[in-house]
Amino acid sequence: MKPGPPPDPHRYYTETIPRQFNGALDAQERLGEGGRDVYQAMRAVDATICVEVRGEGGGRFFLNVREGRMSAGDAPAQAPFLTVVQDRSAFEKLAREAGDSALALLGGLSGLAGEMRLTRKRIESLGQLQGAVRFSVGGDGGFDLITHFGTGPVPERPTASIAVDEDAYRELRSGQLDPGAAFMNGKIKVEGDLQLAMQLALAALSSD
Q1: pTM listed for this prediction
Q2: For position 1, what pLDDT does the model report?
Q3: CB neighbours of 92 closer than 8 A, spacing ≥ 6?
């Protein structure tokens, strides 16, 4: 089967991701009493994420979350706590892998998680981080992206760099590879601010 046409960044970030993000919230609510704590933690989120796609057809997109529901805007509702910078190639690879799952996209952007819910606890953990992390996946299907934490401008040079090969990345995303073990056996290579890289991993992989 031939792959479909490449996704359009504007439609993906202004329509697909908000729709799927809100759908995940509704699905959590339908779990009833068993999912109530996580649902309430998701509804407690008020935050903005900025995504910048560089290259043809790209742009800057603000994903505003208010009381747990996401909408796309031309301007941030508040200072973004997280800014992601990716070129068109990296966007296409992440979008194809995540499909229509907003939670899978968030996990891919963190680099170290499968599906990642945005709860108030996780927002607070990520909000404590300051600096930019370059995440690089090697191999033919690899890509680079910058994830910047904090309200200031994205620096020209990252504070830390995290590199994995393509197989290790997919094992991390699927949960087959424990991040702690991956650090220990050298499948995840970190340069620069090790503390920032570890704080990111802990925040991304923490319980909801």
Answers
A1: 0.85
A2: 39
A3: 6, 7
